[in-house]
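Working notes for the structural subgroup meeting. M.R. asked for a predicted model of this chain before we commit to crystallization trials. I am recording the input and output together here so anyone reviewing the notebook later can reproduce the run.

Input as submitted:
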Amino acid sequence: MKKGFNILLILCAALVAISCSKTKSYTDMLKDEKKAIERFIDANDLEILEDFPEDSVFKENQFVELENGVYLNIIDKGSEQRAVQYKTKMLYRCKMRYFMNVDTTMIENYGPHSNGTSPFPFVYGDVSYGSDYNMSYVSEGMQEPLKYVGDRAKVKLIVPFKRGTYYDQSSGNPVYYEILEYIFEENL
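Returned structure, recorded in token form:
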């Protein structure tokens, strides 16, 4: 009986230790993200439109929240040619950062600071997380604007972590794309 009591005591101690871990729950991550996005919108004086502009023309600080929670601002619609899911081979260049924490991480392969880096390749609609290094930067959220824009389009995005890359989802970090340019490989 004493042996059974000791085992029960050990199990209780283990449960207490597990329940007191500092890992955030998914619900806590969603609440923190919502607050961070609201702070980002306020700090940058962004206007969130109720409806998508009919002419697809946005002012610099205007965004629309899409059905999946991604915030979109179209800088340049690009060509009339549209990508076809699971067929169109694409490249993209971007300037993006994580903004939830004080220490913001910037990833940039766009413009004069690209230092000869290549654009990231992907196939529109593919968000597989294989071993390919470049695929780690492809997400559902960063592909969402392709429903509205064409080749050489430029957009700004706020991507919630649940629509982000595998890393974004596991860390609970939303991403701000200051600029994201889509390039259709067939038009190079």
